[in-house]
């Protein structure tokens, strides 16, 4: 038992934490219980801070596309989070690796993700770890691809007056300023969304042929740009422009606000869809192409 929650099953595990299906006693409410991962000492620098940051971030947020926090507590000197259980959900990563018929429309997923992020940004929370693994898809009435944004463990608060303390995330989706440990803001999350857009439209990951170490190194140098950007010649102008500006090395050269970013994203997706570039057909119309990222 963790508080009044009975653990009944394992939902998933990562490098820093494990998530379990738990049932609140005595009312039977099902929830997702997140604990520090097995083998990771709770005293490890940054681990407890990461759990507390996620709790504080989620406590600020109330949006349909963001998983809800139900409780934060400490038991046996170990912090734990109790969150809304996304029943029947699967990650966007799993959907992208699945059958083409099950893949969600790119614009639909991206629109919901941006809505969730803008709501968080308005409350001073930067997610900093946008990637397919942190976007859950759940079927609700009338929508088989409803987004729930999860894992605010790397959240940064724009009103805390400090530099970024917790570093981490997936180098393929991280902005250069985050890799370098510099100042982050909404522009950091929008960079990740731009990278995610490429994955959804083209069916493969940017920088995908490089190792994570190579990506870390190249993102520290403004002379290095993704090879994929030079291969956008056949894409519609609106789509090319979106990627070039959204992935600018200098945040000052990216989209200045949420409204501008939204408009450019919608135009990019609409133009891409008009020429059949939707991520569903892109991967499978090429003989021998794999459903997984390069």
Structure description:
- With 294 residues, this protein is an alpha+beta fold.
- Helix content is 33%, strand content 20%.
- Strand 4 (69-75) and strand 5 (78-84) form a beta hairpin.
Which outline best applies?
globular
Residue ranges: pLDDT <50 for 5 or more in a row? 160-167, 281-294
Number of strands: 10
Q: What is the helix content?
A: 25-40%
Query: Order of strands across the widest beta sheet?
Result: 1-2-3-5-4
| Beta-strand share of residues | 15-25%
By DSSP (H or I, 4+ residues per run), the number of helices equals: 9
Mean pLDDT: 85
Q: Alpha-carbon distance between the termini?
A: 43 Å
Q: What is the string of SSEs from the N terminus onward?
A: EEEHEEEHHEEEEHHHHHH
Radius of gyration: 19 Å
Largest β-sheet summary:
5 strands, antiparallel
The chain-level structural class is: alpha+beta
Strand and helix layout:
Blueprint: E1 5-13, E2 17-24, E3 29-36, H1 47-60, E4 69-75, E5 78-84, E6 90-91, H2 92-96, H3 106-122, E7 125-126, E8 135-140, E9 143-149, E10 156-157, H4 176-179, H5 186-202, H6 212-218, H7 237-246, H8 258-274, H9 280-284
Antiparallel strand pairs: 1-2, 2-3, 3-5, 4-5, 6-8, 7-10, 8-9
């Amino acid at each position: 038992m963790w508080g009044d929650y009975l653990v009944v099953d394992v939902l998933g595990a990562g490098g820093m934490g494990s998530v379990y299906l738990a049932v609140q006693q005595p009312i039977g409410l099902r929830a997702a219980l997140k604990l520090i991962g097995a083998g990771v000492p709770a005293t490890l620098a940054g681990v407890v801070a990461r759990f507390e940051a996620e709790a504080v971030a989620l406590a600020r947020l109330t949006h349909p596309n963001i998983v809800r926090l139900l409780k934060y507590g400490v038991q046996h000197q170990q912090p734990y989070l109790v969150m809304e259980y996304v029943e029947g959900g699967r990650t966007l990563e799993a959907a992208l690796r699945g059958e083409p018929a099950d893949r969600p429309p790119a614009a639909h997923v991206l629109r919901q993700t941006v809505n969730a992020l803008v709501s968080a940004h308005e409350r001073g929370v930067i997610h900093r770890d946008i990637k397919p693994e942190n976007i859950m898809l759940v079927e609700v009435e009338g929508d088989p691809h409803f987004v729930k944004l999860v894992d605010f463990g790397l959240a940064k608060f724009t009103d805390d007056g400090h530099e970024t303390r917790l570093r981490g995330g997936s180098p393929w989706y991280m902005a250069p300023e985050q890799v370098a440990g510099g100042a982050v803001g909404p522009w950091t999350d929008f960079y990740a969304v731009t990278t995610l857009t490429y994955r959804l439209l083209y069916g493969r990951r940017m920088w995908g042929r490089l190792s994570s170490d190579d990506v870390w190194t190249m993102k520290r140098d403004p002379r290095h740009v993704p090879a994929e950007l030079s291969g956008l010649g056949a894409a519609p102008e609106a789509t090319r422009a979106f990627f070039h500006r959204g992935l600018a090395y200098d945040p000052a050269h990216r989209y200045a606000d949420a409204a501008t970013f939204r408009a450019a994203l919608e135009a990019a997706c609409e133009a891409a869809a008009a020429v059949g570039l939707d991520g569903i057909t892109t991967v499978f119309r090429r003989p021998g192409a794999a459903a997984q990222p390069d």
